[in-house]
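General statements about sequence and structure are easier to judge against a single worked case. For one protein, we set the task of working out the structure tokens from the amino acid sequence alone. This step matters because it turns folding into a mapping between discrete strings. The amino acid sequence and the backbone structure tokens for this protein are reproduced below.
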Amino acid sequence: MLVLASASPRRKELLSLLVKEFEVLPADIDETPMYQENAEDYVVRMAIEKASAAALKYRQQAGFDMSAIFIASDTSVVIDGRILGKPASLEDSLSMLRLLSGRSHKVITSLCFSNLQHEHIATKLVVSDVLFREISNVEIEQYWKTGEPQDKAGSYAVQGLGAIFVRSISGSYSAVVGLPLYETAQLLAQFGIHSLEEMSHE
């Protein structure tokens, strides 16, 4: 049994490209960065904590599967060493997108695979560079009204209307969306699940 420790419809959609059956079990954790914690350490810690919290929640269900594998991921937008979270207001969104406008930033995505006992943990870190064109305040305000940026790190969705701001991506597009498919397939294989081979047995 695979368990995706995320409420993100984007991660669910991406994982469904690799495996047919999995359970979705998001778990709430404190996502506050630690004092002077760098972005790479932060996103890895978030993925590990999400997997751990989901495993704990899963154990409380009746008839849980002892062989369950938990998949968690975290994505942060980083510029000038600053981690941009999800905007709480239009003012937040304006601040973030002004900072990204006309510049390159990093999208750092982590993956954590864990068994139920949390004794077998595998992590991966994927860093992609995204270059934005110049964005006007009017565009940011109109974009905010669409509702798209409101639950997105860095206040944009590369797989949605936010793509109109993106001049180029160097790295993994699926990682920028929220789940790096290449690295996810690699970790699935480590845990004995080979995506394309599984499909061939259908």
